[in-house]
Design goal:
12 strands, six-stranded mixed barrel, 15 helices, 51% helix, alpha+beta, two-stranded antiparallel ribbon
Length: 418
């Protein structure tokens, strides 16, 4: 402390004003409220963004259990030589595995119930290398998808809507009919349900079915698979890998990564996260600018002290620095407390929320309504650093006007009635 400049010594002393006497107790109380307000706002930002990141990661992982990191398909709807294309794709060091697929839409019928469904034809031995759908089986066995047996695996919500179980028969209606003497008639084919999967994402659980790629080619009258599904080492680099493949592959091929397949969803999540960040930052801003009133009252109360310091040779810049130090320390301490509390809650939210639910007898995410029944958390250091920087900057900005006002105090007028 002895090595600090007098501005720091006075600023630190003013920060503790009112603790030893009741003269400035109200100012100290307002300063404490501002400090805790900043901390509360910072903690709220960290916790909310961590939960939103957790939900985004959870939904993304559930999507990627069904969809691939990168999909390659031909403009005509079928790749003539998918083995050659797969060999070219495997030359990219970022690629882990490839698998052919057939995609198409159909109507699935069971008694009087009819549903629209996306049919995906896969090779059962290769598909587990590019997606996790084989690990999401709720009943039945993935290996029961065998060529020529016309078996099918349904999503759990779709199976529930059709009221079917493993072993039941369903009928698929092809999008293209067939010409008969009686006119155009729909093409119908019966399939046996050999499994039910549950990815945890309603869009896929309610509207997707898997069959062997050979059976799918026959059903949609394709000469070859629709394309290739690709798994890469780092899914976050999927756009970059897709760009590299577009430059290296031969043929008239189209390439899309997982972020393009769900572009609207991720754009909506990004917008929601940005708006939440702005709204919660306003809470931090309100608490930070409470420092203005605290410092203004401090300046008014300390005018005599300011005048004495000026007569002893302190410059206006030094006076301004004193009050900037006082407000800055309040902002730093508040931000530090908020970061500590926010990080602790974000790391332990999987324990805190169940305890609150058990204590209060409520369920924030009922199983009857939501597929995700726990609050996930994904704490990111970049978010914590960004939030901390914003809080400190706002606190610093809040000190400028009161400090400038303190620097303009005229010693003669301040000491006139002392």
């Amino acid at each position: 402390m002895k090595n600090l400049s007098f501005e720091w010594l006075v600023g630190l002393r003013y920060t503790r004003a009112g603790k030893r006497s009741g003269r400035n107790g109200f100012i100290s109380f307002i300063s404490m409220i501002s400090m805790f307000g900043i901390g509360l706002g910072v903690a709220a930002l960290i916790i909310v963004l961590s939960v939103m990141n957790g939900f985004q990661k959870e939904v993304r992982d559930r999507m990627l259990s069904v969809i691939a990191h990168v999909e390659i398909f031909d403009a005509t709807g079928a790749i003539p030589d998918w083995q050659q294309t797969a060999a070219e794709v495997q030359k990219n060091p970022a690629v882990l595995a490839t698998a052919p697929y057939v995609d198409g839409q159909s109507m699935i019928i069971r008694d009087e119930v009819m549903r629209g469904v996306i049919i995906r034809g896969v090779l059962p031995e290769l598909e587990p290398k590019v997606s996790e759908v084989a690990d999401k089986m709720k009943s039945g066995h993935w290996q029961d998808l065998r060529s020529g047996e016309f078996n099918i695996i349904l999503g759990s919500a779709l199976a529930a809507g059709l009221r079917v179980q493993v072993g039941d028969k369903v009928t698929l209606a092809a999008p293209e009919g067939q010409m008969t003497p009686a006119g155009m008639m729909p093409r119908l084919k019966a399939y046996t349900v050999v499994g039910i999967f549950e990815a945890g994402h309603y869009e896929y659980d309610s509207g997707m079915a898997f069959m062997h790629v050979d059976d799918a080619q026959k059903f949609f009258r394709l000469a070859s698979p629709s394309g290739l599904r690709v798994k890469i080492r780092d899914m976050l680099k999927a756009p970059l890998v897709a760009l590299e493949l577009s430059r290296s592959l031969t043929g008239d091929l189209l390439i899309r990564d997982w972020s393009q397949q769900n572009k609207n969803y991720f754009a909506a999540v990004k917008t929601e996260k940005t708006m939440m960040f702005i709204i919660l930052t306003l809470i931090v801003a309100v608490a930070a600018f409470n420092l203005v009133s605290t410092l203004v009252m401090t300046v008014t109360d300390k005018q005599a002290d300011i005048a004495i310091l000026r007569t002893l040779g302190a410059s206006p810049a030094s006076i301004m620095k004193i009050f900037m130090i006082q407000g800055g320390i309040t902002g730093l301490v508040g931000t530090g407390l908020g970061v500590l509390f926010g990080v602790l809650v974000a790391h332990n939210i999987d324990v805190i929320v169940p305890w609150i639910e058990h204590t209060m007898g409520v369920a924030f995410l009922p199983k009857e309504l939501y597929f995700i029944t726990t609050l996930p958390s994904d704490l990111r250091s970049a978010d914590v650093l960004q939030i901390s920087a914003i809080a400190v900057v706002l606190a610093f900005v809040a000190t400028l006007y009161p400090s400038w006002r303190a620097a303009r105090v005229k010693p003669a007028e301040a000491l006139r009635y002392e």
